[in-house]
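Give me the fold.
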Amino acid sequence: MGNKHTRYIFVTGGVVSSLGKGIASASLGSLLESRGLTVTILKLDPYINLDPGTMSPFQHGEVFVTEDGSETDLDLGYYERFLNSKMSKSNNFTTGQVYEEVLRKERKGDYLGGTVQVIPHITDEIKRRIIKGAGNSDIAIVEIGGTVGDIESQPFLEAIRQMKIDFQSNQTLFMHLTLLPFLNSAGETKTKPTQRSVKEMLSHGLQPDILVCRSDEPMEDEERRKIALFTNVKEDSVISMPDVNSIYKIPLLLNNQRVDEIVLKKLGLSSSKRPNLSDWKKVIKEDLEPKDSVKISMVGKYTELADAYKSLNEALKHGGFKNNLKVDIDYVDSEGLNSKNINSKLKNSDAILVPGGFGERGIEGMICAVKYARTKSIPYLGICLGMQIAVIEFARNVAKMKHANSTEFDSNTKYPVVGLISEWLDSEGSIERRDSSSDLGGTMRLGSQECILEKDSLTRKMYKTAKINERHRHRYEVNNNLIDDLVSKGLIVAGKSSDKMLVEVIELNSHPWFVGCQFHPEFTSDPRKGHPLFTGFVKAAKRNKIKR
């Protein structure tokens, strides 16, 4: 059953959601990876949706896209930013996908007319997917979404309980995150929520090996002893994870408490290689000791929830790291932006960014923002929808194509400068087709694809190479039938798809720094290496600040 050498670390959470299971998993993974082990991380989501692709960003936050074209949970972004390995379709699955596969098999007759039940059919499918996602890695960290006690998570908990029995004792380890709240009225930290959470775990037949306690302040020794006593967890395996001023401190925080050593011992693994944490120390210094700051206005439609732009926020921070700058992000709701208030909203911006998104809401506000950046010579970065908006604005106000639009927003526009993609190559080079009646879910141009950059373009100077691979997530493209008219007015097509059929990057020939890209560069940004586009964008913001 699976790779006999793979060890599994199951990460669960209790008491409340949003404790930071994703960051804890990613940080532990980076420590183990730095010890010379191959690590992958899986996220199991308990909702019935097949994937987060059609879910509202207000509910779910960002949709992360893997290289092989899967729409996944935003935690996979943390995994890739902390690890050197890339995630794939197999690294994230939902309850919906599990049930869909089991029902497909039932319809096909694979169960020979037997009654299909949660145990064993659903749990077997979960186990199969975990083992598949683990592949040949030395360690697979498996994060269970939700909190222990949720009815939705029960099949996942039952599956990992079975895996503990299926495998050798040194092949599985359970790490549980809980909340350690401080009550001001009582003047003390309360351990009872953690005790109750572990009790809930035990009711599912699961005994945590490591407890990670989230709190405002570091845990006291007395609290650690009390928790260990009442949860049957060894004292040195009760780990304090207090709030920190940089998430990139978490690997060092876990290492200081010897979590990686505890894991290796429990899993029967030996590693003489000490983790090299110098990269993380450098990142922390860049994060906490910037020489100056820049203000970047992000004009989007999901600004009420920061998680909707999680990878983008991080990529901007990384761009700041590489310029010794702190990036202050000013979230501007595009729905409330217009020609009358735009100056008051954006006059203090060192640079302007319009991110991706779907639907007509807030579009005119984004167009106003692009016009402001173009006419005021403010550095501009448009990503996906942000590039399409830049093309629409240019068509309307420079090329004089009155009411130019995307067919996504106006199907009858006289100048459809952006239209629905009907045919494209997927990440494996196969032809994909769709039309306006196709399902919304899983029918976009998705995943990593090659882009060819023009020789003298600003974008090529930043990437320092002619061919790049970036990840896509969109349904609409710049209309090739109208592109020549736009180019004749000063629009630069700086990048195209490998078959030269699709516009990937645009620039302006009379602007100091204006870039629109159809892909999502934020998905490939890394805190240790940064990303050429964001590094260049933040640098341009700094130049503009000095000029102003």
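The two ends are 64 Å apart (CA to CA).
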